[in-house]
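Still learning folds. Look over my entry:

…
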Amino acid sequence: MDSQLIESNYELKVSDIKLLDEHFGTEIYVIGTEAKKYIVKVLPLYFENMENEGLVSGYLYSRGHKVARLIKSREGSYVIKTPKFQFTVQEYVEGKTLPTNSAPKWLLEKSADFLGKTTLALKDWDPLPLRFDRSFFTADTALRKKQQYIGELERAKELGDKKIIPVWEEQIRHLERISRFQIDADRLTYANSHGDFHIGQIIVQDHDITVIDWSSVCRLPVCLDVMTSYVFASPNCREGAVDVEGLGGYIQAYVKHFPLTEYDIQAMPYVLYFWHCVCNYSPNELCSIAGKYRSMALLIQKMLNWLYVHVDDLSKDLQGRVNSR
């Protein structure tokens, strides 16, 4: 990242710049100025609606939510686009992120509380870009993905890649499983939400939290944000099994602020299973991913294998536990 490019677009004088992280085409830098530090996020051009991150984070901050705000450019924009990439500048938040499945009890409570308050605060915001509409949760979606993976499996067999062949086979088995689901998207509660709420997006300092990275903010089935944030944070889910007692308590903390229907609770495990099968790491990525994202990828695979057997029981147990409170 060129410091001159930052200075030409922002009222900032950069004293130093350091690469903090990079993943899947995105680069994260921390820059220093005379006054303070900032985060610069560089993304591919195919990421759309990036201006929403600045608008939503600013809106939430003005209403008392602890979020990382984006800085406006000289021209009043939250996003700078070049012919090759786009980038944003945001506040630097002091603190640390915790590893996957390491949240203490107090953090789980604050996480559910924050997410519920956020969904409520965005209730009257104009509808954000929609993700996972009625056409997504269908057998056609799963079977198209399955056919794609069958082709990749055949290529792996031709190449004799014995390491990746069982990974493709496992993913195909999951796609066959979810193709039999009957998820009625019209009965799911769709609302504006973070869109990628997990423990890696939470900065912790002195038993307080700030939520970062609002680039995925969207309108989606909110039960997905709720369950995703729990399974990536709770130590009880470390081996992929989802503990119904902990998840039930997390849901109860969330619905103190924003309601979920009985159908949201019933469908939640199926929605999460379907989404992870279709949208997350491909077998090629699973075999090569490293760093902090590897723990997330491995957790997803463990969880998919557990859900393959237990998704129906989890749905029934979750309904009984939540409804009995």
Notes: The mean pLDDT is 93.
